[in-house]
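Field reference: sequence -> structure
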Amino acid sequence: MARPYDEMTIFGGNSNSALTDDICAYLSLPRGRAQVFKFSNDNSFVRIEESVRDNDVYVVQSFATPVNDSIMEMLIMIDAFRRASAGRITAVIPAKSDQIAARKRRGSKGGRPHGFDAEAYKGRNVVERSFNKAKQWRGLATRYDKLAITYRAADVIFTILTWLRT
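Structure field:
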């Protein structure tokens, strides 16, 4: 009798399919069968071509240019797996080695969220508190490149995650 989460399936988006193939080859697992494509009006579509019910599903997607398209593609894939009753879904987002090195080199200097006095902000309105919570989110606070598009993409991910938790 099979236990839950016995099966592991690895899927990849369009941003770095070679990395997904290398991971699958290293683990001696076949790559998950799914079609990920865009319509002519730039809407993304995902079609899962195998059963993922109660499987551990790993979605490999790097945030390559254009970042917004990569993020949306990953979120649409996660939604498709969720609707297909996947047991657990894990997003694998590889970081560039220079970003990792910069994070190690800088340590706690720069890029960290500014602390705020929770007691002083207790009486503020809900919107301002939500903005403060979003500004302190680690995905936003550790962005060293500070490009508007990556900052906005991280803000969108935080908003979606917050919305999904409620």
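Note: The two ends are 36 Å apart (CA to CA).
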